[in-house]
UniProtKB/TrEMBL annotation:
Keywords from the named record: DNA-binding, Phosphoprotein
Protein name, entry field: Response regulator with CheY-like receiver domain and winged-helix DNA-binding domain
SMART domains, alphabetized: REC (SM00448), Trans_reg_C (SM00862)
Gene3D superfamilies for this protein: 3.40.50.2300, 6.10.250.690, Histidine kinase-like ATPase, C-terminal domain, Winged helix-like DNA-binding domain superfamily/Winged helix DNA-binding domain
Any Pfam family hit: Response_reg
GO biological process: regulation of DNA-templated transcription
Residues the record lists as 4-aspartylphosphate modifications: D51
Native source organism of the sequence: Mesorhizobium australicum (strain HAMBI 3006 / LMG 24608 / WSM2073)
DNA-binding region(s), chain positions: 123-217
Record-linked CDD domains: REC_OmpR_PmrA-like (cd17624), trans_reg_C (cd00383)
InterPro entries the record matches: CheY-like_superfamily, HATPase_C_sf, HATPase_dom, OmpR/PhoB-type_DNA-bd, Sig_transdc_resp-reg_receiver, WalR-like, WH-like_DNA-bd_sf
An example Gene Ontology molecular-function term: phosphorelay response regulator activity
Entry's Gene Ontology cellular component terms: cytosol; protein-DNA complex
């Protein structure tokens, strides 16, 4: 998890930062509120550790400023102020927890994990095949045996677990490793990904060449074994429908479509494409009309109401631009270019089509898959 530490004491700040890095977190250290605002304006953080007495202001005022600006990042106040009144004031200002100096670093770790769990900043523990992961407690097991990961390996695993099935850009992983003090060479990410694969399974992290990496949620049946793609599509849609705010906004249509077998490698990549297109549709599609995911017997998957009725973009042009910019950690408008890039890697294609005459929904995104 990426943590912003706001602390003016050199000795204390250095000790906390080193302990958090050893726990596998990426830490940015701001020594006053001005520096904290600079860091917070650039990237999102999973948690803030906040001192109260700072050179350029009061930490509680900064916390109230965060909450007034609708910033819900959980904050743990870390201070020498110890009275009951101090604690009440900090919690009422919006802090998730309050820790009085001095303290045992292990207690800080436990409180960070507890706050992160309660705010959903760690994925829930789950198992896939022989692998089980509990990111909050920093525990991994393979075939029932504990697996010890380094802080840098945890940083990569946290990145790909933040959106299972989606693509994490290589540049974002590089930034996470840099925040842990790793030297950045041309193959740094590849080296640590290789080490992580040796520990958790070589097929668990997929490489999207030229872009980044993706966590593979499913176990592969076997090299080349066919997979029912209809079931894969259903699983992706069901994942979206588990979120209550998508209720009524997403419909799956597979009626009359027989089991549709495809290569195991395709069955790993195509859900990545589908997730990006559905996310794009739910974000940009017409709000009063549900998005329909339709699996068709002609070998296509259509996402109806995939975006607003505007001049449709040139997919190859925006994909080329995206790949050119993908060395950056944050690239706007990832959905369509990433989907187009990935589907082409398995020999398929993505097409955009305006709605049929008389229809009032958004454009269609049509995935054509080799069979």
């Amino acid at each position: 998890m990426r943590i912003l530490l706001i602390e003016d004491s050199e000795d204390f700040g250095s000790a906390v930062r080193e302990h958090m890095i050893a726990d596998g977190h990426a830490v940015e250290w701001a020594k006053d509120l001005s520096e904290a605002r600079y860091h917070a304006s650039g990237i999102p953080y999973g948690l803030v550790l906040l001192d109260i007495n700072l050179p350029d202001g009061n930490g509680l005022d900064y916390l109230r400023e965060m909450r007034k600006g609708r910033d819900s990042t959980p904050v743990i106040i870390v201070t020498a102020r110890h009275t009951v009144e101090d604690r009440i004031e900090g919690l009422n200002a919006g802090a998730a927890d309050y820790l009085v100096k001095p303290f045992d670093p292990r207690e800080l770790s436990a409180r960070i994990h507890a706050v992160a769990r309660s705010h959903g900043n760690f994925p829930k523990p789950y198992s896939v095949g022989a692998l089980s992961i509990n990111a909050a407690e920093r525990r991994v097991a393979l075939d029932g045996q504990p697996v010890n990961l380094t802080a840098r390996e945890w940083a990569i695993l946290d990145c790909v677990l933040s959106r299972p099935g989606a693509v994490v850009l290589k540049r974002k992983i590089e930034e996470e490793l840099l925040s842990l003090g790793s030297e950045s060479e041309s193959n740094t990410v590849e080296v640590y990904v290789s080490r992580l694969r040796k520990k958790i399974g070589r097929d668990r992290i997929a490489t999207l060449r030229g872009l980044g990496y993706s966590f593979v949620e499913e176990s592969r049946n076997g090299l080349g074994d066919p997979v029912d793609l209809v079931q894969k599509v259903r699983s992706v849609v069901d994942d979206f429908l588990k979120k209550p705010w998508f209720a009524g906004r997403l419909i799956l249509d597979v009626d009359g479509c027989p089991a549709w077998e495809c290569k195991a490698d395709h069955a790993v990549r195509i859900p990545v494409v589908l997730r990006y297109l559905i996310d794009n549709a739910l974000t940009h599609g017409l709000p009063d009309i549900p998005t329909t995911v339709s699996v068709r017997a002609d070998g296509t998957i259509a996402i109806v109401n995939a975006g607003p009725v505007v001049p449709l973009p040139d997919l190859d042009e925006i994909t080329e631009r995206f790949v050119r910019l993908a060395t950056r950690a944050t690239v706007p408008g990832q959905g369509l270019p990433v989907a187009n890039y990935v589907i082409k890697k398995v020999g398929g294609s993505l097409e955009l089509a305006s709605p049929a005459t008389g229809r009032e929904d958004g454009f269609e995104a049509i995935i054509r898959i080799p069979r």
